[in-house]
């Protein structure tokens, strides 16, 4: 049976407002973004247009090639991509500004980026006020000499998702392992590593099981802890067509996201003029309560006889243990832990029961908890109970927020897996050593958070900014300041580069995705490997591709016979080796021109319910849905995104909800109980830090607060992370609210409310 067709013509039942273009309503102005991009890139408009029309988007992981994709006809151009465009077209910064960095320390990250591209290699010793220019040869000679004297276990390498392609990830991780080190990690870990763990354990796969087109015309799409309107705006066009096809959209989240309620798709006349009602229903859960909510839903499915029994019998194992857990869970406990009522769980279960097909989508609202793997497993259990696997209009989709992360782990730029997602161990190390022709270490390495705690002697960071992306910025800075040799390779200046050297710091200029000789590839959320050609245009003369830099580094540090194994004539040679080493990527070697792509595994993984597990069956697994409640008088805290990409803040105010960067999103009932006024200055405090903010009334789950990330990182524990994937708990903290600046560092000795106001029970 085919998916439901998209209705032709106008669909007034989906309109969000009769106001033309939503004039006067709180919403992003996507048309203004176009004019802003033109103004920002006016000195390089022709090059900017070639990047947009020929390159693969370096924003989110939905994967447009030029202005088109493989899901729907028509043009795609989101505001995230437009904001990132200037990073690719601007000229070099004035190197004299770096002679004394004291004046730069007070600048925001946005101001540092706006100074321009890094022009040439830079060097700074301890005690020097700033950086001096250095040649590439001298820089690499100095770095190699220091690294030759450093034990491999004392070196660490980190790659961000800043538009990095598969070829960069592959070459860098191979070079690092040629040095005898597995201490390599990338930004994928702080996004979806729990998803990878849970999917691999249950289904034998580690990526979304379906395609974007399955969203359009299916019966139901569920978003759990995910807000694509902000983080993956291209998807909103898919949802616009889904609504026109009669698909229901449901959100499970601690916040009733305004842009998921109604959205204006700028590239479609109907949606641009009238807007589109997106979500049909919101279920507000407490932060971290998703697993308990889903267990309650599953109990209803079991009790009401709404299971897909034939699918469970033919294609799964372990259901009896999950059934026993669900039926043994008390409703009072499930309601307390989830924040949702038994009736709400029944209503959600009924939506699933009526949906013969459904796609379950989730993001960091589920994963960034100490029990992130458990929450993802609860989603998997629910999907398996209804048979939403391996067929059209069905699937499990951990949606990616950045264009490089899906391929990062699959290329092996990970502390715990080799290329292809193969777990590191003696047997897999021996197999990889045979393929590469040199021995590789056979034990897992250090993750990014572990690297900073391990007393490294060398840290090489490609992109990224630990001061903004890791919990407790003060601790991250203190750890970085103790590392004798730091190497930062990026396209622009960042605040972590300015930290006083323990001994020495190198800053190396990198190329953008569009400047890499021979072109490169990206892997999208739907497992589509897409070729992005080199785009002719102006260049930063001394910027170098990271893959080439690491080949040169290995050439200085390793015997010639080993160095030769890490030498590639170009990115085409890299793709040919990827095809040999990573079987899933067979076909990448044939990608050579714009628009060429393939989807590894086909449109649906686990086709017809058959999984790549030893017995071909999916595994149900009971989940630990418990969580500790906050202390008396405290609130649960969640960090969230605003007008930004990753940690790159683009605007001081979020156009979606009007919240400034220091906003503390609070429910109206909590605000009234605390006796606070909208806009009032308050302080959030716990044993990790203090956040000065302003009250911002919003439809969040009572008993919880939300603040922007990365500003809210000062309130997060640097130690709390999930047990298997080791993801930091960005969405799991508690804080006390004060009306005056707290004086004590011990919240247990602080007067609740600071001004004597009572706190709600949570």
Automatic annotation (TrEMBL):
Segments forming domain Molybdopterin dinucleotide-binding: 640-732
Keyword Oxidoreductase part of the UniProt annotation: yes
Region (Disordered) residue spans: 740-762
Enzyme class name: oxidoreductase
One Gene Ontology MF term: 4 iron, 4 sulfur cluster binding
EC number of the protein: 1.-.-.-
Compositional bias ranges of the Gly residues kind: 752-762
An example Gene Ontology CC term for this record: membrane
SUPFAM superfamilies from the UniProt entry: ADC-like (SSF50692), Formate dehydrogenase/DMSO reductase, domains 1-3 (SSF53706)
Xref: InterPro entries: Asp_de-COase-like_dom_sf, MoPterin_dinucl-bd_dom, Mopterin_OxRdtase, Mopterin_OxRdtse_a_bac, Prok_molybdopt-oxidoreductase
UniProt key word Repeat: no
Domain spans labelled Molybdopterin oxidoreductase: 117-518
Keywords, ordered alphabetically: Iron, Iron-sulfur, Metal-binding, Oxidoreductase
NCBIfam families reported in the protein's UniProt record: Fdhalpha-like (TIGR01701)
Protein's UniProt name: Putative oxidoreductase
């Amino acid at each position: 049976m085919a998916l439901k067709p998209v209705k032709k013509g106008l669909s007034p039942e989906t309109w969000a407002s009769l106001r033309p273009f939503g004039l006067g309503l709180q919403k992003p102005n996507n048309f203004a973004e176009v004019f802003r991009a033109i103004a920002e890139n006016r000195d390089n408009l022709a090059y900017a247009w070639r990047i947009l029309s020929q390159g693969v988007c370096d924003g989110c992981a939905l994967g447009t090639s030029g202005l088109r994709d493989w899901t729907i006809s028509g043009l795609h151009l989101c505001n995230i991509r437009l904001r990132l465009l200037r990073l690719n077209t601007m000229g070099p910064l004035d190197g004299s500004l770096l002679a004394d960095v004291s004046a730069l320390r007070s600048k925001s990250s946005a101001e540092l980026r706006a100074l321009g591209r890094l022009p040439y290699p830079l060097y700074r010793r301890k005690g020097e006020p700033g950086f001096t220019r250095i040649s590439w040869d001298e820089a690499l000679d100095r770095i190699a000499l220091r690294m030759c004297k450093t034990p491999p276990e004392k070196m660490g390498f980190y790659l961000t998702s800043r538009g990095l392609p598969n070829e960069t990830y592959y070459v860098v991780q191979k070079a690092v392992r040629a040095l005898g080190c597995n201490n390599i990690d990338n930004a994928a870990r702080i996004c979806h590593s729990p998803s990878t763990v849970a999917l691999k354990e249950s289904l034998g796969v580690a990526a979304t099981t379906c395609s974007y087109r399955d969203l359009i015309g299916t019966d139901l799409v569920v978003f759990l802890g995910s807000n694509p309107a902000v983080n993956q705006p291209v998807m909103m066009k898919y949802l616009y067509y889904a609504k026109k096809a009669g698909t229901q959209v449901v959100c499970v989240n601690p916040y009733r996201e305004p842009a998921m309620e109604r959205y204006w798709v700028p590239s479609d006349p109907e949606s641009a003029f009238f807007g589109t009602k997106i979500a049909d229903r919101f279920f507000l859960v407490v932060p971290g309560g998703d697993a308990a909510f889903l267990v309650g839903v599953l109990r209803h499915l079991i009790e009401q006889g709404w299971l897909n029994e034939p699918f469970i019998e033919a294609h799964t194992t372990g259901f009896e243990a999950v059934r026993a857990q669900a039926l043994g869970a008390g409703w009072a406990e499930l309601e307390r832990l989830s924040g949702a009522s038994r009736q709400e769980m029944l209503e959600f279960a009924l939506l699933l029961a009526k949906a013969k097909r459904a796609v379950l989508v989730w993001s960091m609202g589920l994963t960034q908890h100490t029990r992130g793997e458990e929450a993802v497993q609860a989603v998997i259990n629910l999907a398996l109970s209804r048979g939403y696997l391996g067929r059209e209009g069905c699937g499990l989709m951990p949606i990616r927020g950045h264009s490089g992360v899906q391929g990062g782990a699959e290329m092996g730029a990970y502390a715990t897996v080799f290329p292809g997602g193969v777990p590191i161990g003696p047997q897999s190390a021996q197999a990889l050593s045979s393929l590469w022709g040199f021995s590789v270490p056979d034990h897992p390495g250090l993750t990014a958070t572990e690297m900073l705690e391990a007393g490294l002697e060398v840290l090489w960071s490609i992109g990224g900014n630990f001061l903004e992306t890791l919990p407790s910025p003060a601790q991250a800075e203190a750890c970085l300041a103790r590392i004798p040799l730091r190497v930062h390779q990026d396209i622009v200046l960042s605040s972590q580069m300015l930290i006083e050297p323990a001994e020495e710091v190198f800053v190396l200029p990198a190329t953008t995705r569009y400047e890499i000789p021979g072109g490169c590839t990206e892997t999208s959320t739907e497992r589509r490997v897409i070729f992005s050609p080199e785009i002719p245009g102006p260049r930063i003369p001394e910027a170098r591709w990271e893959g080439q830099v690491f080949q040169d580094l290995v050439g200085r540090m390793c015997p010639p016979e080993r160095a030769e194994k890490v030498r590639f004539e170009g990115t085409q040679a890299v793709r040919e080796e990827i095809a040999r080493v990573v079987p899933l990527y067979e076909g990448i070697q044939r990608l050579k021109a714009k628009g060429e792509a393939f989807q590894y595994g086909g449109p649906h993984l686990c086709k017809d319910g058959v999984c790549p597990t030893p017995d071909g069956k999916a595994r149900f697994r009971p989940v630990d849905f418990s969580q500790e409640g906050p202390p008396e008088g405290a609130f649960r805290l969640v960090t969230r995104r605003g007008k930004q990409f990753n940690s790159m803040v683009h605007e001081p105010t979020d156009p979606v909800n009007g919240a400034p960067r220091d906003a503390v999103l609070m429910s109206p009932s909590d605000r009234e109980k605390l006796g606070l006024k909208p806009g009032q200055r308050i302080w959030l405090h716990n044993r990790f830090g203090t956040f000065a903010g302003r009250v911002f009334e919003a439809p969040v789950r009572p008993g919880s607060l939300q603040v922007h990330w990365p500003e809210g990182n000062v309130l997060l524990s640097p130690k709390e992370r999930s047990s298997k994937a080791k993801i930091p708990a960005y969405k799991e903290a508690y804080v006390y609210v004060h009306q005056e600046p707290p004086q004590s560092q011990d919240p247990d000795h602080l007067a609740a409310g600071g001004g004597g106001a009572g706190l709600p029970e949570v």
